[in-house]
Amino acid sequence: MDVQADAPLVADAAAPAATGQVPAAAEVAEIRDRILEKLKHSVSKSVGSATPHDWFIATALSVRDKIVESWLTSIDTAKKTGRKRVYYLSLEFLIGRLLIDALTNMELIDQTRAALAELGVDLEALREVEPDAALGNGGLGRLAACFMESMATLSIAAYGYGIRYDHGLFRQRIKDGRQLEYPEDWLSYGNPWEFQRPELVYGVGFSGHIETQTLPDGELKQVWMPGETVQALAYDTPIAGWRGAHINTLRLWAARAADPLRLDKFNSGDHVGALMDQVRAESISKVLYPGDTSPAGQELRLRQEYFFASASLQDLVRRHMSLFGDIKTLADKAAIQLNDTHPAIAVAELMHILVDRYDIPWNKSWAITKATFSYTNHTLLPEALETWPVPLMERLLPRHMQIIYLINALHLEKVGKGPDASGARLAALSLIDESHGRRVRMGHLAFLGSHKVNGVSALHSDLMKTTVFRDLESVEPGKITNKTNGITFRRWLKEANPSLTSLLTEVVGDTLLDDATILEKVAPYADDSAFTERYAAIRRANKVALSALVRDRIGVKLDPDALFDVHIKRIHEYKRQILNILETVAIFEEIRAQSFREWIPRVKIFAGKAAASYTTAKLIIQLANDVGKVVNSDPTVRGLLKVVFLPNYNVSLAERIIPAADLSEQISTAGMEASGTGNMKFALNGALTIGTLDGANVEILEKVGAPNIFIFGLTADQVEAKRTQGISGQEAIARSQRLSEALESIASGVFSPEQPDRYRPLVDALTYNDFFLVTADFDSYYNTQRDVFKRWRDKKSWWRSAVINTSNMGWFSSDRTITEYAQEIWNVPTTPPGRN
After folding, report:
1. Catalytic site residue 265?
2. Which CATH code for domain 83-96+134-381+452-485?
3. For residue range 140-153, what is the model confidence (pLDDT) as tens digits?
4. 342, 570, 604, 800: which is the annotated catalytic residue?
5. pLDDT at 436
6. SS3 for 474-492, per residue?
């Protein structure tokens, strides 16, 4: 985080506008006095000496006080009523900046803006001072953040559990077109939103051995004697729901050594060795997704996952016992949701707690476990369904490996009695994969240990039944259900695009953010020229702001009247940024060769991070930057095409880009994107989607209608059929002169003259081993982009489609998604906002 102590307290050009509401003078004065009190007594600064960061801390603490008042009430109410709680376990929580989010949901934003203005401070400038908490990688962590906000909005008593990473996901810098990774130091200046809970410390064991004890009744009991214990320290962040009616807790765990200093070693002169235990323990919560290409990296990943799962289960079991006193009622009072396979070890951990600590018989413990857990699957990629080497599990978690073996034995014994219990079928159903050395299938463990398993879009849930969980679905039919993802409109409409929010609420009322389905009432305005002109003007203003940000950050000047074609997401081969780049190269060559044509000015905007060890993805980032360098400096293009890659993509940057996007790129290989939520955010803000029939694109198509979305490419069934025929791209390349020439330009060094062979590996992969079928979809994508151009020329038609997109996004609210979870999986009541 870069904080300039003497930075001016003025908003930059990309800041959103005020809502225009006039707050009451008395309330403004109260907030002003609260901020001044915090500045003096908590920050210890005077008005004259305060830096922008000081003002941010004082403002954050003042709104935090208001949140705490409701937070304590929410906690007390849940205790008194004995309500069932939801526990959301996720390795990622991509919460982003919280100041504007908190002010918005507490309905204090206009009052606080006015109060700060009286003090000569601009709220939007403070917004830029706050670090962006990088506690997630992409959609998984952002979904968890949206779900936490919606659970609070719907007054569901809930805790989010995760890890308080010291550095989170790396900070991305681009040098000579290449991604460089640096530690993300979001905690360098402290975190005003969190509360450390020093009284909540849990020991998390690793390694050691198992002792067998004989009980008085002759039964044998397994007792795990850990060889190492790491302490988990709790840090709580309050998560405010809409209108502040209910506040939930995000509890993140930090790892510390039980004995941080070996005093004997220190006094003997081994000052470094004296701290080794501390370094080893604290590495658990040091970095999100440490590299796992080495055995040490794999071990650290597993230590992270068990650490947070164990601490979370110990915490929720402690709470349950203090409130209800009977561990056997756990499933009646607690619903635990596993967000992807990362927390799957929690299934074995709960069995360990029930069987070993509370002496609950195995069968009863298994029934409690299955009734308590539910599991969300987020991917059909086999490599993303985690597996762990059995030797590593046996060494690091010996008792849990023993439990997993017993779960597996009883499971296979049961299914082995079926008529089709062949060796191959039992091998597919086993928790232990023996095809390449014995490995524990964590997805299988999460599936068996849960009473419900859900996908995150209709297509994804259907494919789960026929691909990764085909065999398990046949054993437990009906277990897989669908819960299409959603987004919180408070963040992705009101905060990200306040001008559009004002326009929408003007025509449909200010209860829009209570009930997103009210957006349907906007649809008739798609044919109202006065409305669409205002809608288009808001988009242009957002594009002007984004253009200023781009110029400031990377020095490229953009035309706000150009078509802003946006592709922002994690860099991965299946997300096919390379397909977009190939079309860019093809158009670049055509503009140069056919300058007489009437070209539409277009800006290609890329952003996203590649995993540090993902060589191909990092090469794609370099290619995007190299293409941009050549295209943007070519005088024959005359500014008709610009290519920009914005570094260090995060929530805050997404909030700037999405409201300015005209075209949303959702072009993953069909059948490989579980859902996507960026597609929903773009469509909500009026961008038209170009995409495959993949993930939630299918449902967006159903909602907005075919004339208002650009669909291309192979379907999921066609992708599967194509792969069975072979994945060489040679035939597609031979059939398409544009594709062939674009690949040749890249392979021959047109965009990397200093290293002509730099991109030969990418081109060879597409030519001979095109698993993600980029070449097969290229012509369809290229032609569909021409349809985009035709629509863009017809501005009336374009803006009509944009309004139709916005008006049909209400169903994609995370409030709807969470209501479905509550009713159909968790069995907890909900209270819609405005009825608390």
Report:
1. no
2. 3.40.50.2000
3. 999 999 999 999 99
4. 570
5. 84
6. HHCCCCEEECCCCECHHHH
Q: How far apart are CA 622 and CA 628, in angstroms?
A: 10
| Domain range list for the chain | 1-81+100-131, 83-96+134-381+452-485, 489-812
Residue 732 contacts residue 710 (beta carbons within 8 Å):
no
Give the separation between CA 36 and CA 560, rounded to whole angstroms. Answer: 40
Q: Among the options 484, 677, 806, 817, which is catalytic? A: 677
pLDDT, position 8: 37
Q: Which of 127, 142, 352, 378 is catalytic?
A: 378
CATH number of this structure's domain 489-812: 3.40.50.2000
Phi, psi angles (nearest 5°) of residue 557: -90, 130
Task: Confirm whether 681 is a catalytic residue.
Answer: yes
Residue tagged active-site, from 602, 681, 791, 800: 681
Categorize the per-residue pLDDT at 834 as very low, low, confident or very high, splitting at 50, 70 and 90: low
* Cβ–Cβ under 8 Å, residues 374 and 334: no
Which residue in 53, 399, 567, 569 is the catalytic one?
569
Separation between Cα atoms, residue 774 and residue 568, nearest integer Å: 18
List the catalytic residue out of 539, 575, 602, 618.
575
pLDDT over threshold 60, residue 483: yes
Q: Does this chain's domain 83-96+134-381+452-485 share its CATH topology with 489-812?
A: yes
Whether 570 is catalytic: yes
C-alpha–C-alpha distance, residues 169 and 183, integer Å: 8
Beta carbons of 483 and 455 less than 8 angstroms apart = yes
Determine whether 569 is an active site residue. Answer: yes
